[in-house]
Every structure is written in C-alpha cells, then in structure tokens.
Specification:
Elements: H1 2-23, E1 39-43, E2 46-48, E3 52-54, E4 61-64, E5 74-77, E6 92-94, E7 101-106, E8 116-121
Parallel strand pairs: 1-4, 3-8
Antiparallel strand pairs: 1-2, 4-6, 5-7, 7-8
The protein binds copper (II) ion.
C-alpha cells in the first residue's frame, strides 16, 4: 500500500516533467510565435504568425488552412482601416497596402478562444 503510493508519485512527477519539456520548445517555437511574413495562415482558432512584422507598404495575405471551419478577419485598430474579410472556410484575403503602425484584428466567431492577431508595419 505505502510503496504503491510512492510509485504513483514518481509516475506523476515524470508526467509533469514531460509536459513541461513539451511546452518549452527551443526559441519559443509554439503555435503563436511572432514572425516576418506577408502571408498569415488562418487555421482553427489561430492566426500565424502573430505578431507579424512587415515593411511599410506591404500587403498581407491571409490564407485559410485546408479543412478549417469558417473564420474571418475583422480589424480592430490601426493607422488605416482595411476592409474586413468575408467569413469563409477556404481561400485567401489580401489587405490593401498597410501604413506604418500597429494593426490589430480578430475573428468575430472565435475571439473568445483567443483568435486574434497583430501586424506591426515599419
Ligand atoms: Cu474563427
């Protein structure tokens, strides 16, 4: 009985260690790390990369991942206000040329799940 408890504690410790090492991959390589791309992938509940840093005057293309559910790109704030995308489950939406500053946007359907992003233009 007593030794059984000790074994359980050891096993639990190993599981916790394993999950820790999984969540801290090198260079912060998670699903929402920043980047420098004029293409942002729209997949279920995430925009990648975000924050995304691009050059002044860039257009950014949001590309829906295969088999995604319906999402949209709805702008919150920025130096200009690009048109919002349609709600769609495939295809792509390209912004007009972006001005210097920080744009924020979200998906109206999944914002409660953290589906939002930032584009830094400089
Ligand atoms: Cu969505």
């Amino acid at each position: 009985m007593r030794s059984g408890l000790v074994v359980l504690e050891v096993v639990t410790g190993v599981v916790i260690l394993a999950s820790c090492s999984n969540s801290t991959s090198p260079n912060g390589g998670g699903s929402n790390t920043g980047g420098h791309s004029t293409t942002i992938t729209v997949s279920d509940n995430t925009f990648q990369p975000t924050p995304d840093t691009v050059a002044i005057g860039s257009t950014v293309t949001f590309s829906w991942a295969p088999n995604s559910v319906s999402h949209n790109v709805t702008w919150d704030a920025g130096p200009t206000t690009p048109p919002n995308s349609a709600t769609m489950s495939s295809g792509a939406y390209t912004t007009p040329a972006l001005d210097a500053g920080t744009y924020t946007y979200h998906c109206t359907i999944h914002v409660a799940l953290g589906m939002q992003g930032t584009i830094v233009v400089r």
